[in-house]
Amino acid sequence: MLADGLRLEPSDHAIGRSRGGLSTKIHQLVDGTGLPLVVIVGAGQSGDSPVFAHLLAGLSVPRVGPGRPRSRPVAVLGDKAYSSRANRAMLRRRGIRAVIAEPSDQAGHRRRRGSAGGRPPAFDTDAYKGRNVVERSFNNVKQWRGLATRYDKLAIVYRGAAVLRAIVLWLRQ
């Protein structure tokens, strides 16, 4: 976790079965220590970027003392799947620093447009090195056999197991 506040890493992994086969994704926001803050289960065939706004909308971190819960992190670390103009604009409007790598195809399109393509988005390589926390968090999720093999037929039951796993991780902390 950053010393100046909350840092989030959104990510997804297609683990588990659904009625259509191995296509359910767990989307999570985790803090800097790998503890899940928001858990959403989505369809495996859908993209990752449209879920990003729902993940941020579900964020609510209670304060130790009095005051409203925190819903605005200092920075969001994300992989290339979350690199879109809409996501970057949403983070900019909320005053959140985006540490999201730019995919090579987007960089090529921007360069091809010349001066009309604009500047490349700011990217902090040192901060991006901390994104492995979310990958380690998903390795921890996969330790639950029920989540890794996805024997549940209903998505609500599968989400319940994912939330229960998050609760267990928080209780161990």
List the helices and strands and how they pair.
Blueprint: E1 7-14, E2 24-30, E3 36-43, H1 52-57, E4 75-78, H2 85-94, E5 97-100, H3 104-112, H4 125-128, H5 132-141, H6 145-149, H7 155-172
Parallel strand pairs: 1-4, 4-5
Antiparallel strand pairs: 1-2, 2-3
Plain-language structure description:
The chain has 173 residues and is α/β, with parallel strands linked by helices. It has a single domain, classed as Ribonuclease H-like superfamily/Ribonuclease H (Nucleotidyltransferase, domain 5). The chain is built from 7 helices and 5 strands; from the N terminus they run E-E-E-H-E-H-E-H-H-H-H-H. The protein has helices at 52-57, 85-94, 104-112, 125-128, 132-141, 145-149, 155-172; strands spanning 7-14, 24-30, 36-43, 75-78, 97-100. It has a 5-stranded mixed sheet with strand order 3-2-1-4-5, sandwiched between helices. The two termini are 14 Å apart. The model is unreliable at 1-5 and 14-21 (pLDDT under 50).
Summed up:
With 173 residues, the protein is an alpha/beta fold.
- The helix-strand sequence is EEEHEHEHHHHH
Instruction: Calculate the terminal CA-CA distance, rounded to whole Å.
Output: 14 Å
Specify the structural class. alpha/beta
Kindly report the oligomeric state of this protein: single chain
Give the DSSP E fraction (strand runs of 2 or more residues).
15-25%
Q: Given the C-alpha coordinates, what overall shape results?
A: globular
| Poorly predicted tracts of residues | 1-5, 14-21
Indicate the mean pLDDT: 81
Q: Tell me the CATH topology.
A: Nucleotidyltransferase, domain 5
Helix fraction by DSSP (H/I, runs of at least 4): 25-40%
Rg from Cα: 17 Å
The major β-sheet equals: 5 strands, mixed
Number of domains: 1
